[in-house]
């Protein structure tokens, strides 16, 4: 969950040398260095590729910019008329540096340590493309999806195919597992969740599995609530990431019989540290540690996280496993 980020001073040192965030994502030597930093400092069991979910829409020609203090900004795609300016055939060339990053990391990483690649799920990526950036209510995206589902599905279809290709190339370059981030999945009603979250994820899982049958696929439909079970059953993911709001005991009873569970410490408990962090982590380990489980956060680590807290959590998990 965003292992290499603004909480590491060595990351900030590298980031200060690069003109913008996308330039860092597309500079393989630097992106590889950033990917490896948490492994070198904390000895994690897996490295997480340093990139961003918006490189795919950038490859499509959506016009992505990262503005300091404001986040991503995109040239909005607001309907069928705008789809013609997207160029699926251009994606591979634009994201090629990401594949070089994967190759560099795999060359430098201990063979015992996994390398996880990732992509944004179509619904979440579409919200950024339609809204032109982050949103609280996804009004423009929902208006299009409800009002003209036929043309909205053309955007989703384009993202499905681009994502399959993107993950395929990451695996070919050396990623040992891939994760599909659907950060805004919880914004949809059950029927819309089925159409715009589950169905695209199932198609992506099927597409990756046809090419790489032994590579695990992790799905993370953040905010899915009671729909987590349906997501796992229908998408065929090998592992499901659960957000902070999910009860680990429920996940152990409902989700672990179907596959591996990943999660779900509140990032702010990690910020707090101390007894609070330890109690929360142990509650998760007790509930999920007897089954197939990857300990992780319930969402991305935040900039104000103390390095000592990450080190203590890592040691707690390793000692628990031992």
Q: Report Rg.
A: 19 Å
Supply the CATH class of the largest domain. Answer: Alpha Beta
Q: Termini distance?
A: 23 Å
CATH architecture of the largest domain: Alpha-Beta Barrel
Total beta strand runs: 9
Shape: globular
Q: What share of residues is helical?
A: 40-55%
* Mean pLDDT across every amino acid position: 96
| Biggest beta sheet attributes | 7 strands, parallel
In total, how many domains does the architecture comprise?
A: 2
**SS strand fraction:** 5-15%
SSE topology string: HHHEHEEHHEHHHEHEHEHEHHEH
Low-pLDDT runs of 5+ residues are none
Largest beta sheet: what is the strand line-up? 1-4-5-6-7-8-9
Q: What is the SS-derived class?
A: alpha/beta
**CATH topology term of the largest domain:** TIM Barrel
> What's the number of helices?
15
Summarize the topology.
Elements: H1 9-15, H2 21-25, H3 28-42, E1 46-48, H4 55-60, E2 64-67, E3 71-74, H5 80-83, H6 91-108, E4 114-120, H7 122-131, H8 139-147, H9 149-173, E5 177-182, H10 190-211, E6 217-221, H11 228-235, E7 239-241, H12 248-254, E8 260-265, H13 267-272, H14 274-288, E9 293-297, H15 307-321
Parallel strand pairs: 1-4, 4-5, 5-6, 6-7, 7-8, 8-9
Antiparallel strand pairs: 2-3
Helix pairs in contact: 3-6, 6-9, 7-9, 8-9, 9-10, 10-11, 12-14, 14-15
């Amino acid at each position: 969950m965003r292992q290499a980020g603004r909480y590491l001073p060595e990351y900030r040192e590298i980031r200060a040398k690069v003109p913008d965030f996308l330039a860092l994502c597309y500079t393989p030597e630097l992106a590889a260095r950033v990917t490896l930093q948490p492994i070198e400092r904390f000895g994690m069991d897996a490295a997480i590729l340093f990139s961003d979910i918006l490189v795919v829409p950038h490859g499509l020609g959506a016009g992505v910019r990262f503005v300091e203090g404001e986040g991503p900004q995109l040239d909005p795609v607001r309907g069928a008329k705008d789809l013609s300016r997207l160029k699926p055939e251009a994606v591979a060339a634009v994201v090629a540096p990401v594949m070089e990053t994967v190759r560099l990391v795999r060359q430098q990483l201990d063979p015992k340590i996994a390398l996880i690649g990732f992509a944004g799920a179509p619904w979440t990526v579409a919200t950024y493309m339609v809204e032109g950036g982050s949103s609280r209510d996804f009004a423009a995206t929902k208006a299009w999806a409800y009002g003209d589902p036929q043309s909205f599905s053309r955007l989703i279809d384009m993202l499905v195919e681009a994502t399959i290709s993107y993950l395929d190339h990451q695996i070919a370059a050396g990623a040992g597992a891939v994760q599909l981030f659907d950060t805004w999945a919880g914004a949809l009603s059950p029927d819309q969740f089925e159409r715009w979250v589950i169905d695209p994820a199932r198609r992506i899982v099927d597409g990756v599995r046809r090419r790489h049958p032994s590579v695990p696929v992790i799905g993370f439909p953040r905010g899915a609530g009671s729909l987590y079970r349906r997501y796992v059953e229908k998408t065929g993911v090998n592992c499901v990431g659960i957000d902070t709001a999910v009860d680990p005991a429920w996940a152990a009873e409902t989700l672990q019989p179907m596959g591996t569970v990943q999660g779900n410490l509140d990032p702010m408990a990690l910020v707090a540290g101390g007894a609070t962090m330890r109690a929360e982590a142990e509650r998760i380990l007790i509930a999920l540690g007897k089954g197939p489980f990857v300990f992780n956060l319930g969402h991305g680590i935040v900039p104000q996280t103390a390095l000592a807290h990450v080190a203590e959590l890592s040691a707690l998990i390793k000692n628990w496993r031992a």
